[in-house]
Amino acid sequence: MGGWVTSLRPSYNYQANNNLEMESKEFTIDIEKILEASFEAAPECCIYRVPRDLRKINKKAYTPQVVSIGPLHHCKQEYLIEMEKQKLIYVKKFGERTSIDKLKEMKSFIKVNERKIRICYAENPSLSSDEFITMILYDAVFIIELFLRNDEMRTEFDILLGTPILKAAIKLDLQLLENQLPYFVFKDLFFKLGDVAKPSGEENYDDPFLILASRFFFDSELGHLKYKYTFDLQHFTDLRRCFLLNKDIVNPTNNIVKERLRDLPCATKLDGSGVKFECIEDRSSLEISCEYKTKSPQLIPFIKVQELELQIPRFDVYDGTECLIRNVMALEQLHYPFETHVCNYMILLDFLIDTETDVDLLVKKGIILNCLGDSAAIANMFNKLGLQVTPSYSERYFGQFGVAEKLKAHYGKSWNHSKATFQGYISEILG
């Protein structure tokens, strides 16, 4: 019996050692997985996943519907894979436009800059080096060829540019925060093309690709003014933000207000207190101002009265507006947390717009261009844009002498309500 037990002991020790060795290997693998998953965003990071609480409010607004760009949505949905075939066609045509050697040179550039590109993403792309380089090359060449064709007006035999509904969908997809390539990739690759590919009618411009991008995303009359500004552009979502902001706001001097905005009356209530809403045509989309002006009522020219005038540039609302604004706001939340100018602007409009009645008033004043035809839908859009958003509350809008405080102070004086009622009564009599 004892010999039998003794004879088993070496086998027992062998199994124990084997188990320890296996556990050690598993432990090593677990550590590797943890290290691989624990990807810390670099300072150069500018492309993010939209936070879950923000995404669930309107998932579709942050998800590409036609074309995926970059690693975050690469081949994730079957309906996006179809566009990969079109990318290959564009890459082939681009090779014919330039040369195979030029494509190889572009691929070499991406390979050299692979790490620089990867750290622009808030999460580590799981693609292998070869897969990542090929994906970046195809996506970049696809967009460059798309922009060149758009600039050349080659739409007759191009299904992407010749089909308005498809072109509009691609425009939206290319401006989604999760659907980006770093802008320096386009700028540097396009520079390597030299005279082989350049925007029509432009000479000696230091960033010709920005001209193509502006012509694709914006009306030419608007775009040609904006790309003269110098700024550190991150990607196309950032380009949309820069387009919404004027030069002064991009480099703000305003202090941040710690107090949250409360109890700002809506547009119809402010209108009832005598606030005059004025549409401003020739200013930045975010430059709202509020000031007292001395005027003579049209029907009572011999009387001078002080009126509080709220000046708001026209805001166009169409099918893609919510999608674009949501992605710019998400970018500000993650990349510009102390410069949330678009968020601040939208929150101020959210206070002004409670119901469709407020929308109708702003449409009547020319401040909102309603391309949806549904005032209730626009009111609902503005009411949800501020959810799960933390603004920086700039002094421009929310400070002690800012727009919001001027409006609240005016509304709080009963004399202003009485004066507005009296003026309305006189207008009815004389009208």
From TrEMBL:
A Pfam family this chain is assigned to: DUF247
InterPro entries per the UniProt record, alphabetical: DUF247_pln
Domain of life per record: Eukaryota
Name by which UniProt lists this protein: Uncharacterized protein
